[in-house]
Amino acid sequence: MKRARFQVLSILLLLVLNGACKKSASSSADTGAGANTAANSPAATEPAPAAAPASAPASSPAAAAPANSAASAPAPAAAPATPPPPFSAAQKLQMFVYPQNNQSSDQQLRDEYDCYNSVQQQTGIDPSVGPPSGPSAAEVQAAQQDAAAGAPQAQGGGVRGAARGAVGGAAIGAISGNAGRGAAIGSVVGTVRGRRKQNQANAESKEAAAQSVAAQAQQQAADAKAAYNKQMGTFKRGFSACMDARGYSVK
User: Fold this and answer.
1) What is the pLDDT of residues 34-83, one digit of tens each?
2) Considering the domain boundaries, does residue 15 fall inside one?
3) Cβ(92)–Cβ(198) under 8 Å?
4) Sorting pLDDT into bands at 50, 70 and 90, what band is 140?
5) Residue 214 and residue 147: Cα distance in Å, rounded?
6) Which domain holds residue 188?
7) Does 112 fall in a domain?
8) Residue at 159 is within a domain
9) Pick from 228, 234, 224: nearest CA to 119
10) What residues contact 16, with CB distance under 8 A and at least 6 apart?
11) C-beta separation of 116 from 87 below 8 A
């Protein structure tokens, strides 16, 4: 009896499960059919309209004009390099310059020329004038002759000598008993001696005047040379300072 009840319950449970499975399969079929219908509908298959392209903003003529002007304007031409001077200012000053920053020879010549002109403008010294030469030998000789000609000259030496000679001769003649003859002889001898001494004094005066003029000329030449050397020393110091500031060693 119990066995029969268990079989009945088993059959009922199987029927219930079978009905549930059929209902689930039916529901799944309906859902798939709806999805296929929606996918195959014209609205789903029709492609979406393409978005309209964004229109580019119109550029204004005022903004385009400068760009066109800048593009069409020619580039400014590069300034030509200044040619180097044809001489070395350092060699002209008898100085030696050595670049410390690998400057080219052309750049060194330009820097030397610039410093040379700058120092010349600041000091007013022109080294191209050269040292003073001093008076020549002919000029000194001419000056000596002029000085000798203008030297003071003694006069009356013969007369004074004659007077002294006459006095001495008369004294000697008086001893011998002939004062007059002694005076005459003494006068002649005194005249000769007087003139000789006068000529010697005049020659010494001329020599002294000539030597004085020559010494003055030599002193003036030495002073002029010393002044020139001082100016050149000032110029060279300024040139050296200028070149040192531009990266050179100057000796």
Assistant:
1) 444 433 444 434 444 444 444 444 444 444 444 455 456 666 666 667 88
2) no
3) no
4) confident
5) 10
6) 127-250
7) no
8) yes
9) 234
10) none
11) no
